[in-house]
Design goal:
- With 202 residues, the protein is an alpha+beta fold.
- The chain contains five helices and four strands.
- The chain has a two-stranded antiparallel sheet with strand order 1-2.
- A hairpin with a 5-residue loop joins strand 1 and strand 2.
């Protein structure tokens, strides 16, 4: 394959190189090229024409409520996002459950008021916080290139016990909780619930 000419979005897609085919004598071929959602089951649905499908063969939905073009249909996970992380699917399930509850109870289906989708937590007003020392993240050790190209050993290795202890001691609340002794105020990111606020403030 080689990169072809840029398309309308400016992306250069791979195209076959003519005459570059290779014939191999094999006993078995296991096809494992990418992933995609299997939504063939909607062919049996009476309202299939009303269900909007994206060009990536996934269900189109509202990313906040996960409600589809058919109001009673809610989707999340790979069938809506395409191949992604488990944590993304879990988050989608939680948002979908909230929207489904709103729908079946006759409420307006709308996203959470404190949703962080596409919005970063507001940065701290302070350049430093007394008692908190800035430390660098432990780099993930990797198998050297000369070794990885001749083996099936996992490239990403694991950090040592000492590095793990170092990581656990780093402040993970940066930009979430900061106390300003000059104004006697506590700055807390808006997504944290009151119980967590009290815990972190303490």
């Amino acid at each position: 394959m080689e990169l072809g000419e840029p398309d309308a979005s400016g992306r250069r897609r791979p195209v076959p190189i003519e005459g570059s085919e290779t014939i191999l004598d094999v006993d078995m071929v296991i096809s494992a090229i990418s992933q995609q959602a299997d939504i063939g089951f909607i062919e049996k649905e009476p309202e299939k024409e009303a269900i909007t499908i994206t060009r990536w063969n996934t269900f189109d939905n509202d990313p906040e409520t996960l409600q589809c073009s058919v109001p009673y249909l809610f989707t999340g996970g790979d069938v809506a996002t395409g191949p992604s992380l488990v944590v993304t699917a879990i988050g989608g399930g939680r948002r979908a459950a909230r929207s489904i509850h709103q729908y079946i109870t006759g409420e307006e289906v709308k996203g959470a008021p404190k949703s962080l989708r596409n919005r970063h937590i507001q940065e701290s007003l302070f350049t430093s916080v007394p008692g908190v020392t800035k430390t660098q993240r432990t780099p993930m050790p990797e198998l050297p290139v000369k070794e990885r190209i001749h083996s099936m050993i996992e490239v990403d290795q694991v950090i040592t016990e000492d590095d793990a202890k170092h990581e656990s001691g780093r402040c993970l609340n940066c930009c979430r909780v900061c106390y300003n002794p000059d104004t006697d105020t506590l700055t807390i990111a808006p997504d944290m619930d009151s119980a967590q606020n009290k815990k972190n403030a303490a």
